[in-house]
Write a structure and sequence with these properties.
With 315 residues, the protein is of the alpha/beta class. It folds into two domains: 115 residues, ATPase, nucleotide binding domain (Nucleotidyltransferase, domain 5, 2-Layer Sandwich), CATH 3.30.420; 179 residues, 2-Layer Sandwich (Nucleotidyltransferase, domain 5), CATH 3.30.420. Helices cover 50% and strands 22% of the residues. It contains 14 helices and ten strands. The strands form two sheets. It has a five-stranded mixed sheet, with helices on both faces. Strands 8-7-6-9-10 form a five-stranded mixed sheet, with helices on both faces. Helix 2 packs across helix 3 and helix 4 crosses helix 14.
Length: 315
Amino acid sequence: MNKNTIELLAVDGGGTKTLAVLVNANGTILGEGKAGATNYHVVGAIRVKDALEKAILAAFKDAGIDPSSVVKKAVFALAGIDTVNDEKEVSRVVKETVNGLPIKIERLQVENDCLAALLGSTQNNAGVLLIAGTGSIVFAHDGNNRIVRSGGWGHRFGDEGSGYWIGKQAIESVLKMQDGRGEDTLLAELVLEKFDFTKIEELYNWAYSDAYSVDDVGALATTVDVAFRMGDPVSQRILERAVEELLLLVYTVIENAGIHQNEFDLILQGGVFQHNHYIKNQVRNRVQLSFPKANMITTTEEPIQSIIKRGLKLK
């Protein structure tokens, strides 16, 4: 590889953090850079540009490569690309960012982060990727040209079954318990302990303060799992509902992609599947019963690895 030519720049950008890596033709990471969120629905276009620039330049610095290099291919896999308008807006922001940097990119691809990870993981085979982390989304493709998605509408109106959704249910349950509309739950003590609060009123005040964050609520998914394993009925119902929501996402794309009678890979990715064995096992077992030809894959591989595979396969 010529020292002034880079095979691939891969960027994985989400609602909390962004990772940019420089990769050679063999898939080896030469350097990486990190920055804040690049979901423009969450932080806006200006902060997206700043974060992308910071991450990209940090990757070049980490690799010890002059940023005035030529990049053969670049894949920007970013959260928040959910509509045609999103794609236009995010592509504009990415192009403005790239044009403001000394690098020259010969082939630029901008797409939804989950879609990029799916295409990288399954290549040209039929497959489904369900991500349940802080948020939730699923994509499927039939191995030809049909690609469908479900979910991914963000924490305000979607992300069902995700870490944030589970955490939000936990807080709602604690508040209902407080005013007598809900049954007693171990979540009250555990959630207060998680935030170092002493009273439920403090939890309420925090929820409507500037300190409130989607990440902090999402982190409560592990608290719900702890309460569930301690025998808390409220937590069990929350996790059961999370399973139902995630299955609805999966079943919808399988049917809409027309692969319900075919063999396909189903990849489960994200912190919910890594840290909550009940949800992981329930989703795996019930999908397997409904679709016996599904190859169940639970991966701890970071999304950037799938995005790298996606980028290296681009023509």
